[in-house]
Amino acid sequence: MSADRQHVRYVAIFGVVAAVVLLPVLALNYTLGVRSLGGGDAAVQASQWQRATRGVTYAPPLSDSRPFKSARLFDRLPEINTVSFGSSTAMGVTQGMFPADMKMYNFAQTGNSLLTVIAEAEFLQRRQAGLKWFVIPLDWALGFLYEPGEPGREALAPPTSGQRAARSSVPLAQQLQDALSLPRVKNLFGIIKNIARAPSPAAAFRQMFLQEASDDYRCADGTPARDFDTIFRGTCTGFRYDGSATFANLEPVPARRAEALIASAVVASSKYAAALTKSGGEPNPVILERIAALARSMQARGGGVILFMPPLLPGLERALLNAPHTAAQLQRTKQILDAWARAHDLIIIDGGQCERYGCVAHEFVDEHHALPECYTRIFTRFWNDRRARARPGLWK
Questions:
Q1: 56 near 229, Cβ under 8 Å?
Q2: For residues 247 and 269, what is the distance between their CA atoms, to the nearest angstrom?
Q3: Sign of dihedral through CA atoms 29, 35, 39, 41?
Q4: Cα(127)–Cα(108) distance, integer angstroms
Q5: Which of 77, 84, 102, 127 could make a disulfide contact with 106, Cβ separation 3.0–4.6 Å?
Q6: What are the b/e assignments for 316-331, b being 16+ CB within 10 Å?
Q7: Is residue 145 within 8 Å of residue 93, measured between CB atoms?
Q8: Cα-Cα-Cα-Cα dihedral of 273, 274, 280, 282, to 10°?
Q9: For residue 14, what pLDDT band results from cuts at 50, 70 and 90?
Q10: Which residues pair with 305 in a beta bridge?
Q11: 294-346 pLDDT, tens digit each
Q12: ω into residue 67 within 30 of 0, thus cis?
């Protein structure tokens, strides 16, 4: 056999072996990729399941919670009179933190800016006469309070079956390349390892690759759960019936790590410091004007607007108030908000230094995402402080 023929044979054998190995990987990862981006069908199915069970779930992807949250909000509207807004920093707010006559749904969504929140609230104020209370975070730490511009006009609506997932707009070649990327391949082998270790590997494979969702299971507290995504399976990750997040896919901050997190958050290049120094601590006046108008509208219905500054990792705000490059700006923000709240007869719950309420590091998953345990401490103290609730301005 000539050298050329041996070379061709070697290449052919290598190609066949590569195809045998890579084609199943490509097919399985492509399937997981398509399903992990969800779409209208997934949001509708997850919402219908939660309505029936009051369990924990979400529709993929977790980074775009708007379709699922919209489905749940519109489903809950007949039975609620309170909507809590915000980004993921407000997802720890639960129904149990409010008086019994305030029936709440937490509509907070990942990455939702304050400008968008105001537009959402204005839409609901115009269209939903049964709503009396809005709960709105004034999130300065991520810069939302300082963001320039004006709120747009939102037209909220529940998703419908048949809406296309975001992946449909990505070229097929790019989807296939992503399916063969190293992180995807590593993730797939981890999934296969878990399937092999499952009591019933066939059932585990069916749930992961062939079913629209996992089988129902129970969280540690007995709450039913179902996973409509292929990641975080069996962990009770997602949203409760009241819209609050479980944060079950994230680990609480260990006390020993808190000091290092604060040190890195206070440096001039951090996102927290940048938000203050770039804005000079001056909130966008349009934001305050539109919130004041919302408050007047809701007060006319016998309700109002509850404002709060989300809690930060214990010690972080105090460190920013002591840092020379952020102290004046943060003090300026607090002064402006206090004067504005007094002028409009509003109360702002200042949860920034949450250690004053007894919050500790392990009630956070990072510097600015507080778990329900911390939020419960803050809201419990607020509702019990009748005298403070009679005085407008910053409450702390």
A1: no
A2: 27
A3: positive
A4: 19
A5: 84
A6: bbebbbebeebeebbe
A7: no
A8: -90
A9: very low
A10: 134
A11: 999 999 999 999 999 999 999 999 999 999 999 999 999 999 999 999 999 99
A12: no
Tokens representing residue 339 in the block: 């004067």
Contacts 24+ apart (CB under 8 A), 283-288: 283/138, 283/140, 283/145, 283/146, 283/333, 283/336, 283/337, 284/145, 284/146, 284/147, 284/148, 284/149, 286/149, 286/150, 286/151, 287/114, 287/115, 287/118, 287/145, 287/147, 287/151, 288/340
Q: What is the 3-state secondary structure (H, E, C) of the chain?
A: CCHHHHHHHHHHHHHHHHHHHHHHHHHHHHHHHHHHCCCHHHHHHHHHHHHHHCCEECCCCCCCCHHHHHHHHHHHHHHCCEEECCCHHHCCCCHHHCCCCCCEEECCCCCCCHHHHHHHHHHHHHHCCCCCEEEEECCCCCCHHHCCCCCCCCCCCCCCCCCCCHHHHCCHHHHHHHHCCHHHHHHHHHHHHHHHHCCCHHHHHHHHHHCCCCCCEECCCCCEECCCCCCCCCCCCCECCCCCECCCCCCCCCHHHHHHHHHHHHCCCCHHHHHHHHHCCCCCHHHHHHHHHHHHHHHCCCCEEEEEECCECCCHHHHHHHCCCCHHHHHHHHHHHHHHHHHCCCEEEECCEHHHHCCCHHHECCCCCECHHHHHHHHHHHHHCCCHHHCCEEEC
Cα–Cα distances (Å) from 305 to 81, 229, 244, 341, 348, in that order, read 12, 35, 19, 11, 10
Cα–Cα dist 284/151, whole Å: 11
Quick one: tokens of 199?
């009591």
Q: Which two tokens stand for residue 92?
A: 């720890």
Closest C-alpha among 76, 79, 48, 42 to residue 62? 42
| Least confident stretch, 39-43, 216-220, 222-226, 348-352 | 39-43
- Token readout for 342 is 């007094």
Rounded Cα–Cα distance for residues 308 and 251 (Å): 25
Entry field: residues in the chain: 396
Which amino acid does the sequence have at 120?
Answer: E
The owner of tokens 């269209």 is: 127
What interhelical angle do 271-279 and 327-343 show, nearest 10? Answer: 60
pTM for the complete prediction? 0.85
